[in-house]
Structures are given as C-alpha cells and as structure tokens.
Task: inverse folding
C-alpha cells in the first residue's frame, strides 16, 4: 500500500509470459497451437475468446471471402478453442471460459450484417455451452459473456450516432472495458454489458414490436450509425487501389 506520495508497490513475484501466433479461424492451427501450449506451459484454466474482425462493407458489396473470414474468426474460432481446452477443464471440474462478444451480438444495426451475424453466433454458442455445463453439473467451470458498446480501438472508426446523444454514449476506453470485464470474471459474473444502458436497449428490443425498435433506432441515430464508418473504409480502399495502380 502506498503512502506519503509513494507509488504502489507490486508483489515481488516472478511472472513468465508465453506468446504464440495462431490463426484462430483455422481449426488445425488452433489445435496445433493448443498442443504446443500444453507441452510448453501446461493446462489452460482460463480461456478468453477475444479475436474479432470486421469487413466494413455493405452486404452486396462485400466479397464472399471477407464474409467467411468474419464468421470464421468471430464465431467459428470459439468452437475450435473451446474444443481444444474444455476437455481438461471437465476432467478437473475447474476453469473459466470468457466470450468477448459485442452489444451487436444482442441487437443489430444496418450495414454490418456479417459482423452482427458472427457476434449473435458467438452469443448463442456461449449461452448454449453455459447451459450444457450446468446440465452436466460442472459447477467448477464458470462462464462470462462480455458485451461492450463501441470501444475506442479504431476498429469502427467513423461510427456516429445522433450528435445530441453522443455526449451520453461516447466510445468506451479500452482500459475501462478491460477493468469491467476483469471484475466480472473475478466475481464469476455470467454476463457484463458496458455501459449499463445496453441492458435497457436489449430489454426494449426484446419487448417492443419491430417498428417501435426502428423508431427508437432512428431517434438515437443508431439505424445508420455504421454508414460513415463504411464510407471511410470504402474511401481508404479506393485510395489504396489508386496508389497501387490497381
């Protein structure tokens, strides 16, 4: 504990970090890397599925390969990583599986069909897996679903909601999201949405008729919030093609 202006002292312990490069969209790559981890580090007791990509194109303008890539990385990879590490967790009845999804896995918006579909898939996978663990009475294996609002990482740079609403719903700082997620994991919280307003949006979407949801989206400026982001991506792509003489 710090006092008199001293900095907080970290515990004097030796930590070792291992890093591996793995294309999580390719199941054989995941299984091979998982085997390396087991041999070089040991069994994994906490699995955090966090990898995510976005194509940034309207559906009819999006190449099929990018749609497949989004689904493989954002959704299918969860199957491969879980199949790689869950068996040992089941044997020990100990572990924690964390799915970093998105608020767009609970409700959707226009222009990012592949991303929304992949995140809805990740949420569905996580919920079904959680029910399976409960049914098997594996109470030592915890699950946490993380659904943040727009995070200020540059992934969705240009995304805009209604300007009058923006001060109340600014992009979230990555550090804040990490802190909230870690708190949820350490307290075995099944689900965390940030900010808390996302719970209300999800609830309203569940009980209101579709046309009412459309009206709510239009009021918030959420109906076309991704359009500026997509336009920026398209412009950047065009500039790169012109630059490279394509």
Result:
């Amino acid at each position: 504990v710090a006092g008199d202006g001293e900095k907080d002292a970290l515990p004097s312990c030796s930590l070792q970090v291992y890093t591996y490069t793995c294309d999580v969209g390719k199941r054989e790559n995941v299984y091979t890397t998982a085997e390396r981890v087991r041999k070089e580090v040991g069994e994994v007791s906490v699995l955090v599925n966090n990898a995510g990509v976005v194509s940034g194109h309207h559906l009819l303008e999006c190449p099929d390969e990018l749609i497949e890539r989004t689904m493989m990385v954002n959704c299918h990879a969860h199957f491969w990583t879980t199949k790689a590490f869950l068996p040992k967790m089941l044997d020990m009845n100990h572990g924690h599986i964390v799915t970093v999804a998105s608020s767009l896995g609970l409700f959707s918006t226009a222009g990012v069909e592949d991303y929304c579909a992949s995140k809805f898939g990740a949420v569905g996978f996580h919920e079904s897996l959680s029910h399976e663990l409960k049914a098997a009475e594996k109470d030592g294996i915890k699950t946490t679903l993380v659904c943040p609002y727009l995070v200020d990482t540059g992934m969705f740079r240009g995304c805009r909601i209604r300007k009058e609403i923006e001060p109340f719903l600014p992009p979230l700082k990555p550090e804040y999201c990490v802190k909230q997620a870690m708190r949820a994991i350490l307290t075995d919280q099944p689900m965390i949405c940030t900010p808390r307003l996302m719970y209300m949006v999800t609830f309203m979407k569940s009980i209101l008729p579709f046309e009412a949801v459309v009206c709510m989206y239009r009021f918030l400026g959420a109906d076309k919030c991704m359009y500026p982001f997509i336009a920026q991506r398209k412009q950047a792509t065009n500039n790169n093609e012109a630059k490279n003489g394509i």
Remarks:
- The helical segments are 27-40, 64-92, 113-135, 174-186, 197-207, 210-220, 227-243.
- The two ends are 60 Å apart (CA to CA).
